[in-house]
């Protein structure tokens, strides 16, 4: 995808994640409260929580979604910063910089968009291998379909993130705690 596609992807992800993280599916009615009636206060409280969540997520997710394309200025594009070792570094960020917990989501979804949404794919194992991996579903970055593909892939990403958040581990769980929880679930 091109830069505009990755910005769109990051912005839509920030909005979608803002909603996902603001709504607790175990809390009962979202805005109906105990009585089941919808009140202005309940709606405005929820809207405020969603807006705050989107504001907090926008910068790290959009920057993460754009970061891999920095390799257009140096190195080899879709190789130097488009690989799993670099993603591993971003997964470690929350251990070092707690405020960057969601950068990895932007980076990871950038990779997914390039693998699924573009014809070329990315070199997942670079520098160990220069082989580029992609799906046959991709379109050229200059295609009239590029924006549509970006929106469809982003919707699929948000659906998976929703499932992970609600059924595996909450996405706003600190990464060390999430790693321990997942380790316990798989018996490590």
UniProtKB/TrEMBL annotation:
Key words of the record: Hydrolase, Membrane, Transmembrane, Transmembrane helix
Pfam families: YdjM
Superkingdom, taxonomy of origin: Archaea
Organism encoding this protein: Halobellus rarus
Transmembrane feature ranges: 7-30, 50-68, 80-97, 145-164
Gene Ontology molecular function: any one: hydrolase activity
Protein's recorded name: Metal-dependent hydrolase
